[in-house]
Amino acid sequence: LAVPPLGAASAAAAVTKVRTAGKLHTGSPPRGAVALWTGGSHGYGHAALSLGGDRILTTDPPGHPGGVGEQPLSMPKNTWGLTFVGWTTWWGVELPT
């Protein structure tokens, strides 16, 4: 899966960039959006691909460190204590529609 870069060193830095651009949305992310969290032991946050229906495709799911798996949108908060801040479909450049 290739995702265009947001040009940020971490998910938390991407949140700042996306928020500043006015492209951060709240609520349930649609399928294909990038869901973003802040926090964590090093403050890097987390990003995951939304599958829609409050489901995400994420790295390091519980029971599968180093893997990728489908999880509920609430998993990063409930398992890792991260704060869900919103979602975006913006990649740091304006894409043609």
Question: Summed up, what is this model?
Answer:
The protein has 97 residues and is α+β, with helices and mostly antiparallel strands. It has two helices and five strands.
Mean pLDDT: 88
Rg: 13 Å
Structural class: alpha+beta
Q: How many β strands by DSSP?
A: 5
> What does the largest sheet look like?
5 strands, antiparallel
The strands making up the biggest β-sheet line up spatially as 4-3-2-1-5
Low-confidence runs: none
- Shape label: globular
Helix content: 10-25%
**N-to-C SSE series?**
HEEEEHE
Number of helices: 2
Percentage of residues in strands: 25-35%
Separation of the first and last Cα atoms: 21 Å
Which key phrases capture this entry?
97 residues, alpha+beta, five-stranded antiparallel beta sheet, 16% helix
Describe the model.
Helices cover 16% and strands 29% of the residues. It is of the alpha+beta class and 97 residues long. The chain starts with 10 loop residues before the first helix and ends in a 9-residue tail after the last strand. The chain contains two helices and five strands, in the order αββββαβ.
Layout of helices and strands:
Layout: H1 11-20, E1 34-38, E2 46-52, E3 55-59, E4 68-72, H2 75-80, E5 83-88
Antiparallel strand pairs: 1-2, 1-5, 2-3, 3-4
